[in-house]
Write a structure and sequence with these properties.
The chain has eight helices and no strands. The chain is mainly alpha-helical. It has two domains: 54 residues, no CATH class; 185 residues, no CATH class. The radius of gyration is 34 Å and the shape is globular.
């Protein structure tokens, strides 16, 4: 075989590549292009995964304004009508600060990031409440354990070691546990729901129920309760009916004492009811914001507390 014959296949192969095949450099370039396309597709996927999770809002207006803004706008219109018609009810006689709050809510309802920041800040208080509740649970356990021990060993000593102060301290610590933990319980949904079919509802229906009842019932209830417990708490700390404080800021000199001489003063725990309703009201605002985001289709900002199974109340 001649040299020309031995080289013929190579030339023939080269001619085949030029006619319909692909040369090695071209193959390598194609592979590089595919790898670059995969890398950009992966980057696009990560970017899309970090994008806000947005679904269809329940009502079209919720896409531009948080539902609480719609409620505030309807309330403002009703207040204007009540002012024109004339009425003795509060809605027709709003003070300046009432209007500032209403207009502020309407303005904030268009700023989802600001509303979410408010919600996150409020729910951060719930983390503090949870730690305090855990500590108070151990305090109640320790005090009650001491009471039980002294109750059965009191006869072994010549002096009475069953202190009335520890009994009242245990009861007050138990009450303070619920006062401080009310917002944490509401945030995490540990409160039992009597409506046993709740677990079968869709997320949107749960958001509708919570939003409507928080706005219509729970919110006004907390406001009315605060109007009652604030004067009650001030009186418990020693404020007189004419609004004066006999000892000024030294409230421990004038707060309400227990009817039993061996018990702790009851003024502080009664005044703590104000704290309970303040925490409850703040968490109600956070729940309204969260459920409103669900109705607005912002699932990334909205949340509805769910339990694995319906809690039974019997």
């Amino acid at each position: 075989m001649s040299c020309h014959d031995r080289q013929a296949p190579e030339h023939s192969g080269g001619r085949d590549d030029s006619r319909g095949g692909v040369s090695l450099p071209e193959k390598q370039a194609a592979v590089d292009r595919l790898m670059n396309d995969d890398a950009s597709a992966g980057g696009g996927g990560s970017a899309s995964s970090s994008a806000p999770s947005v679904s269809e809002p329940v009502l079209g207006v919720f896409a531009r304004m948080h539902p609480i803004g719609v409620v505030a706008a309807v309330f403002a219109v009703a207040a204007v009508i009540a002012m024109i018609v004339g009425t003795d009810f509060l809605i027709g006689n709003l003070a300046l600060w009432h209007w500032i709050v209403v207009i502020g809510v309407i303005a904030l309802s268009t700023q989802a990031s600001v509303l979410n920041a408010i919600r996150v800040a409020i729910e951060g208080i719930g983390d503090v409440s949870r730690r305090i509740v855990t500590l108070l649970a151990w305090v109640v356990f320790g005090l009650q354990f001491f009471n039980v021990i002294t109750r059965y060993t009191n006869n072994w000593f010549e002096r009475d070691i069953l202190f009335g102060q520890t009994t009242s301290a245990a009861w007050m610590s138990f009450g303070l546990l619920f006062i401080v933990g009310v917002n944490y319980a509401m945030r995490d949904g540990v409160n039992p729901r009597i409506d046993f079919w709740w677990a079968e509802f869709s997320k949107t229906r749960k958001a509708w129920i919570d939003f409507v009842f928080h706005v219509v019932l729970l919110g006004p209830f907390v406001i009315m309760a605060l109007r009652l417990v604030i004067p009650f708490g001030a009186t418990s700390l020693g404020r007189r009916r004419d609004g004066t404080w006999p000892s000024g800021w030294r409230v421990w000199e004038t707060w309400e004492q227990s009817s039993d001489a061996s018990q702790l003063p009851v003024g502080p725990i009664q005044a703590a009811l104000v704290l309970a309703f303040v925490l409850w009201g703040l968490q109600t605002i956070a729940e309204i914001i969260k459920t409103g985001f669900v109705l607005a289709g912002r699932d990334d900002l909205g949340d509805v507390s769910e339990a694995d199974a319906p809690l039974r109340v019997e």
